[in-house]
Description:
Number of strands of chain B: 11
Largest sheet of chain A: 6 strands, mixed
Shape of chain A: globular
Shape of chain B: globular
Number of helices of chain A: 0
Order of helices and strands of chain A: EEEEEEEEEEE
Helix content of chain A: under 10%
Radius of gyration of chain B: 13 Å
Number of helices of chain B: 0
Helix content of chain B: under 10%
Largest interface: A-B, 27 and 26 residues
Radius of gyration of chain A: 13 Å
Number of strands of chain A: 11
Strand content of chain B: over 45%
Oligomer: heterodimer
Order of helices and strands of chain B: EEEEEEEEEEE
Distance between the termini of chain A: 36 Å
Largest sheet of chain B: 7 strands, mixed
Amino acid sequence: QKEVEQNSGPLSVPEGAIASLNCTYSDRVSQSFFWYRQYSGKSPELIMSIYSNGDKEDGRFTAQLNKASQYVSLLIRDSQPSDSATYLCAVNSQTGRRALTFGSGTRLQVQP
Amino acid sequence: DAGVTQSPTHLIKTRGQQVTLRCSPKSGHDTVSWYQQALGQGPQFIFQYYEEEERQRGNFPDRFSGHQFPNYSSELNVNALLLGDSALYLCASSLVGTEYQETQYFGPGTRLLVL
């Protein structure tokens, strides 16, 4: 079992719709969670971080964390073609590990 | 506010050669992490440097080594290059804090091609 799992996609949504990206992780003691956006040929760009159960909103983005289910998600409201990219979920555990463990990413396509 | 910078942007080497990649962290940051990203995969952690010492290392062979300088900049060295070392090498900087709240910001990366 991979430590961080994401559906590779592509996830295709029409412009203006809500895109829902999901991520599960295996290390139960994981404490911090990050979503990065990566355009083709570019480096990852931080979108959001979340540490506590529940929702965290930033503009059109909402991160949701459920530690009991070991599940983190990212919602993108009013999706735009410029949101088309690969979204990477990253996890950092509390057990002395400072490295981020990444999923393979979900490719999102927003259709105009 | 200067972001993370990396050099060079692209590099072509042949098998068996050695390569050095460089990174300058974001202004105010003191910790540098290196990641390798193969095509279609998420970044894989190589190692992290803080206070000029390797603080943590991922599952990479000793051919991968690094260094951090007093000004917090860092180098990644790879010896005896293999074809499989072809990848995007990412540097991420952060400010030391509680270990699970260090947010890492990535530089533009160095794309290495080994022929």
